[in-house]
Design brief:
251 residues; alpha/beta; TIM Barrel; ten-stranded mixed sheet; 23% strand; binds S-adenosylmethionine; binds ligand 2KA; binds iron/sulfur cluster; binds magnesium ion; EC 4.3.99.3; rSAM; 4 iron, 4 sulfur cluster binding
């Protein structure tokens, strides 16, 4: 599998919506390669797998010191690296990227191994390909599925992408995964679009609203978008999320 990095940190996103692992310790496995291009992606260095010849892994948690291995990564090496980074307080393994579900068979093999060893599996995905989600949903304990707002300019037919993401959420729910949707918002995000997402998600999954970093949205606008979603989905099903790890200065 083509990876970008493996490290131990705190889950910095998701806020307090049900299914979020915010503030929990996780070991992150970041896959290289992605099928879409969110304008604000903070992992854009890893979006073309062939341009990631090596992956880096922390030699010690929070050390900021890394070692490198050639891609494609071997499954046994990845499992060894994860176990070496285990600080005994790990809530779950976070599979992220790039888009982890593109390397479906490799992801499945790793999720199976980590579950066998006794870890919970947390998957951070753009949900763009429900058929790939179906292959690993049964191995997923926690699923964070991004709804890519129009302003992400992630792909040309953005409405179709949203509908696929909602499809993926349904698959996770049916498989019993604790699932929430995450929506990165900017100052250009439209109220009517948030209302549409909320109607699609209502009764299906809670929504974490996350300002794009660096934050450009005003408090008033953020409250208006939040209010719009909560009026549709109910006050228990919407929460604020922001990338806390960037404020803690950790990966
Ligand atoms: C880098 S992506 C990798 C996993 C998967 N491809 C996805 O998009 O969910 C991980 C998460 O980072 C968040 N993210 C990336 N860049 C961001 C930014 N500039 N501001 C806020 N959130 C960002 C998105 O919410 C995304 O879900
Ligand atoms: N600490 C920390 N929390 C995160 N939550 C989602 C992340 C991601 O890149 O998927 C991420 C990340 O990169 N670091
Ligand atoms: S889907 Fe995730 S990895 Fe891909 S461009 Fe968007 S934020 Fe970045
Ligand atoms: Mg990140």
């Amino acid at each position: 599998m083509f990876l970008a990095e493996i490290f131990n940190s705190w889950q910095g996103e998701g806020g307090s919506v049900e299914g979020s692992a915010f503030g929990r310790r996780q070991i992150f496995v970041r896959f290289a390669g992605c099928d879409i291009r969110c304008e604000w992606c903070d992992s854009s260095a890893f979006l073309i797998a062939s341009q990631v010849p090596k992956y880096r892994y922390e030699v010690e948690p929070f050390s900021g010191k890394f070692a490198y291995k050639e891609n494609p990564a071997k499954l046994d090496d990845v499992v060894d690296i994860i176990l070496k980074l285990d600080t005994g307080d790990i809530h779950s393994i976070s599979y992220t990227g790039g888009e982890p579900t593109l390397q479906t068979n490799d992801l499945q093999a790793l999720m199976e191994r980590m579950r066998e060893i006794g870890f919970k599996n947390f998957l951070e995905t753009n949900g763009s390909q429900p058929e790939k989600i179906a292959q690993i949903a049964h191995l997923t304990d926690y699923a964070s599925v991004d709804i890519k707002d129009e302003t992400a300019k992630a792909t040309k037919d953005w409405r179709d992408l949203v509908l696929r993401e909602v499809e993926s959420i349904k698959i996770f729910r049916e498989a019993g995964a604790k699932t929430y949707a995450k929506l990165v918002v900017t100052k250009e995000t439209k109220v009517e679009n948030v209302r549409w997402y909320a109607e699609l998600l209502n009764g299906l999954a809670p929504l974490a609203i996350q300002p794009r970093e660096p934050i450009d949205i005003s408090q008033e606008r953020l409250m208006e978008l939040y209010n719009t979603a909560a009026k549709v989905m109910g006050r228990e099903n919407v929460g604020l999320s922001f990338q806390v790890h960037k404020y803690l200065n950790v990966l």
